[in-house]
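Lab meeting prep.
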Amino acid sequence: MTTIVHAAGAAELLAAIPVLTGFTPRDSVVLLPFRGPRTAGALRFDLPAGTTGSTSPRPTAAEFAATAIGLACRVPDTDALAIAVYADGSAAVSGAVPAAALVDELIGRAEACELRVVEALFVGGGSWADYRDPESAPHPLTELPSPPSVPGFAGPAPDQFSGTELPSPGLFAAESVGRALLTVERVLGPAVPGRTRPPATERADPRAHETALLLDDLPSFLEEALDTPEALSPFATAALVWVLNRPALRDVALVQWASSIDRGDRALAAQLCHGARATAVPSDIGGILIGDGPQPDSDRLGVALALVRHTVALAPRETRGGPLAAAAWLSWACGRSTHAARYLDQAQEVDPKLTFAELLRAVVDAGMLPRWSFRAAA
């Protein structure tokens, strides 16, 4: 079902932005691509370094505008856009609206790309202002109309970082997974490089061998995990920790969760052939990891992300790198680059040499989004 949010002017558009994005932007630039009279999604960026006191390591205003407008142009059939700058630590006054130079760059780049700018607005210091009417007195935010009502929408999150906090499953649950992982490692080997293989014991826990047998059919294990993302047994969670710390198996998991168990089967076969004979991974399998493939089911990605976040919360700290990188990729695949960056920070803190995290960091920092994000906007 398509939800239509009406906005008849600047004030109503500002009231609608938290509904369109799902959160209240902070220290951000928001672009709303338009296709005729309708919006086609929303793009949020951190304010560039030096803009209204922002300390984010970002490019110059001209470089920022080129990247931001370039992304907006990738939304099919875009012919106009609205610009909104959110700067918590700044306030507009008559004749001087913060970040005006940045907005000039954005407007100039948009016009060069034949995009009509329908609004250019500033929000900060408890007020809002219009960049194209800088002499007018700022308007109090308290005078904005109420956000439009959307069925099933509980309201915007406080900011763009909301939702990245890991769940708190409890100390007992985490200890249970930690003990299960030790027994699984006795059978399968260490979960991560440098982690000492637990010494053998006289009594082998049969559940560890059962878990190893489950991984003989990895795609089935991954698919069944989606059925109970927050209620896996300690041994199943330990197995998932082990899988997500193996690059080849992690890639199978991400491909399958972004597509289907059939593609998971093909991805596993491709990885085994690649490892044994150095054969190339088919492009329709490997392409999914770079965001080039069929539009994933958003609910399926969301369940997979909930599963991985719960796994991270239960895993011993030194084994969290792989699961955190997987959470970052799933967030990126959902179009949440800000969340992806948060998980990458944590993954690289655990394992600074994690190659997958380094590669995904380069993608996120470059402002790249999956191709299916733009197809979804169409």
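Slide two material, second protein:
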Amino acid sequence: MSTIELIEKEQATAIGDFLVGRWLPFQQKTSVGPFVFVDPVGPTVLEAGETLDIAPHPHIGLSAMTYLFEGTILHQDSLGTEVELQPGAVGWMTAGKGMVHSERTPNYLRQMRTPLHGLQVWVALPKQQEELEPSFVHVEASELPAWEQQGVQIKLIAGEALGQKSPVPVHSGLFFMELKSTHRVSLTFGAELLGEKALYLRKGHIQHEGHTYMPNQFLVPQGSHLCSFEMEEQSVVYLFGGEPLAEERAMHWNFVHSDPKRIEEAKQAWEDHAFSSAFEEMNCLSNSQ
């Protein structure tokens, strides 16, 4: 596995079976299965009057997932969606041929002290589905499959794994799941998990072949079939991956696509205010809050 620490490190360095580097993508690894981007949201505390305000912006060629551990984000998009994302729920936006959205602190929380912590994840769409009609699906935490296995509590957030399937509408073979331990436990998944794998250690510690890994580290196996480790008690791990897509993906700003020319077209459309019919409406929305 290769470790990617939250602290900025431009290049990866081998430590046993792992590399220490930065969040996905990084120099030695630009994707894990169809996952092309993993970024932390926080952890932070927003003081009264301090807010999250990510203005309307476009995407193409990807599905984007917001998954919160703490806090609340108001998602609004060019489909007319307006939904508050709460901890443990999934916001799954498939941009396809083009979508605009914003992410903000809800109005009623703007003068309150609030925590904010979570993950934002991009999944590249298969080539034949890159131009899908855009959509947004909100799945409550209570709707996600949850069970105990090998002495840990498992929640399947997206995709399919270990005989379970999440209701989140993914478009390729992948999995994204949460593991929580109450005591020290050894885990071996191996071929039970599809394709390439990566691991984000949120809390506690894990061990592998004499190496101990700390909170806020991101681990990518050097061999896709390696997936055995020990979780210390009260640890929380997010394990994800899937089958790599057949074609390389170009990325620029918020755009992901197998055809770089399509990204150039999307950039020009955004500059020309022609990206989405809802562009002006959303800009007015951003200026009113």
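Talking points for slide two:
The longest strand covers residues 35-46.
Residues 1-22, 283-289 have pLDDT under 50 and may be disordered.
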